[in-house]
């Protein structure tokens, strides 16, 4: 008979010990640009590393510190905390040229980038990925259903090659010139043929020119490249607290978003284990970031979308222009059916409501709490692109607040109508609001009790 706690020769006496769940996740609950960067920057001082786990240069995370504004695309927002490890994990797709440009620009502004680390398993966005992204969008432009409205950063084609395997290049390949060349000799003629056949004239990708170009980029990145899975696990074992920075957002998630109008990665908390190798049981705090209203860049259904004066006012007050592409963002009232769904998918235990200041001055604020569908009213979200197009939002109207919130720094100074708005969100979503954003600056975040 086996002794208690052992199976064969292995000792399992510790296997019933609870796993320490000291890590935090910050994810977007809408269609992106919820203010994740600002929250990550605010939480970074109480964590030991900040990790990007999905997406690529399609993200644009703004952080404002004392009048200085930073737009981060690939580099984790924790980089503004000097020396703190800022890790790009394996689930990210990396455009090395864009990354180096971003690091150089940060350095030139005096930011300490010594904490920057890049996974050898992240995938590389190549020029033909960006070309294919643009070609596909052009193809869709006149088709029924329309284009996705991608950022044209090559995200989808790069993730597709990751799944294809034989046409993928990983960051680790950039510092192994013979491997890089061997791969490109096969991939480049294949891409030349496929992209030429897609139209808009012949394309030729020269494997030797690409090998030289990317080898050079790899050499510059070499000091930052490592196995981030062991790095992160070693940190966790030593009791470090990791902060995972979601890019894009839950409604853009390739599995759970408004498909096909989504990005190509797992943007929710569910993407963290796959993107980093750190299991979900390590995440003890999942924060869902949501704007006090809704925005969306690119195509796809948007039930609460507004046009006209109200839209204009929100767009201008919220500076709703894309951080990555500069495109004006589509704006609408808060959709709590969507947020409720995203909170469920992510298992969030706290909400962060950002840009509440933008809503001040409206006599009334509308909030969508259920949908009218062809088969009746529902409180459930319909992530299928076509199904969501067919719903009509059902609104609850609540009194607005006239006060300027930008100078409010404590919960008790929030006007009662603003507090009532937050209470409505909590009731409808079933999750407490922990932080409220009243402006873009690092100082303009209020912690609620
Ligand atoms: P992210 O992609 O989720 O990091 O968000 P973005 O940085 O793309 O977009 C959020 C925008 O709102 C940025 O311009 C931020 O500076 C700004 N912002 C963030 N929080 C607040 C807030 O509470 N109030 C206001 N007025 N602006 C905010
Ligand atoms: P952050 O991290 C807003 C949108 C694009 C497009 C769709 C697919 O700043 O919140 P892609 O280039 O990823 O293939 O585009 O997804 N999109 C975002 N929208 N914020 C983002 O990131 C986004 N990342 C992708 O506009 O509709
Ligand atoms: Mg953004």
Q: What would the principal axes of the Cα set say about the shape?
A: globular
- What ligand molecules are bound, each kind once? guanosine-5'-diphosphate, 6-O-phosphoryl inosine monophosphate, magnesium ion
Which stretches are poorly predicted, pLDDT < 50 over at least 5 residues?
1-5
Global structural class? alpha/beta
- The largest beta-sheet arranges its strands as 11-9-7-4-12-3-13-17-21-22
Main sheet attributes: strand count, strand direction, barrel closure: 10 strands, mixed
Helix residue percentage: 25-40%
Task: Return Rg in Å.
Answer: 23 Å
Alpha-carbon distance between the two ends: 54 Å
The total count of helices amounts to 13
Strand content: 15-25%
How many β-strands, per DSSP?
A: 22
* Average pLDDT: 94
Explain the layout of strands and helices.
Layout: E1 6-7, E2 10-11, E3 23-28, H1 36-43, E4 49-52, E5 61-65, E6 68-72, E7 86-88, E8 93-94, H2 96-108, E9 116-119, E10 123-124, H3 127-141, H4 155-164, H5 171-174, H6 177-197, H7 207-221, E11 225-226, H8 228-237, E12 242-245, H9 271-276, E13 283-291, E14 294-296, H10 308-317, E15 330-332, E16 334-335, H11 336-346, E17 350-354, E18 364-373, E19 376-378, H12 385-389, E20 392-399, H13 416-429, E21 433-437, E22 445-447
Parallel strand pairs: 3-12, 3-13, 4-7, 4-12, 7-9, 8-10, 9-11, 13-17, 16-18, 17-21
Antiparallel strand pairs: 1-2, 5-6, 14-15, 18-19, 18-20, 21-22
Helix pairs in contact: 3-4, 6-7
The chain binds guanosine-5'-diphosphate, 6-O-phosphoryl inosine monophosphate (IMO) and magnesium ion (MG).
